[in-house]
Amino acid sequence: MAGLTAGAPTPTAITVHQQSRVLEVGFSDGAVFRISFELMRVYSPSAEVQGHGPGQEKLQTGMREVELAGLEPVGNYAVQPEFSDGHNTGIFTWDYLYFLGSEQEKLWADYAARLAAAGVERDAPMPAKGGHGCSSH
């Protein structure tokens, strides 16, 4: 599991803004990012979203209104959010939160391209979960 990169910025403040559905994270290098819950959910580092290898990513849809039901610390290197749709298996390291915050524009563009390539709308409901024999989630 990825932890902290030596010398990488660490959070100095984390604020959950429920009404605007944004996680605000301030870092030790002075950067402050407002990361939407939707972006966090769409790019969750969990195996359920990322798969178990390149090309196995599962496109997430219908997450525009997702809320943060909980946010638990994981050691001194990450947080584990629980989303209102029940998803709670992604561990967001400080490095990953910094990546999400600093690359939001590119990530949104990539997401839009993936939606278009799949021929689905951003607000389309997720297909029903099917078992695939993975016991990690």
Walkthrough of the structure:
The protein is α+β, with helices and mostly antiparallel strands. It has one domain (11-118): NE0471 N-terminal domain-like (2-Layer Sandwich), CATH 3.30.2020.30. 25% of the residues lie in helices and 24% in strands. A three-stranded antiparallel β-sheet has the order 1-2-3. The longest helix has 15 residues, at 104-118. The two termini are 16 Å apart. The model is unreliable at 131-137 (pLDDT under 50).
Task: Quickly list its features.
three-stranded antiparallel sheet; globular; single chain; alpha+beta; 25% helix; NE0471 N-terminal domain-like; 137 residues
CATH class: Alpha Beta
How many individual helices? 4
Number of strands: 6
Bulk shape: globular
For the largest sheet, list the strands in their spatial order.
1-2-3
> What is the first-to-last residue Cα distance?
16 Å
How much of the sequence lies in strands comes to: 15-25%
Order of SSEs, N→C? EEEHHEEEHH
Mean pLDDT: 90
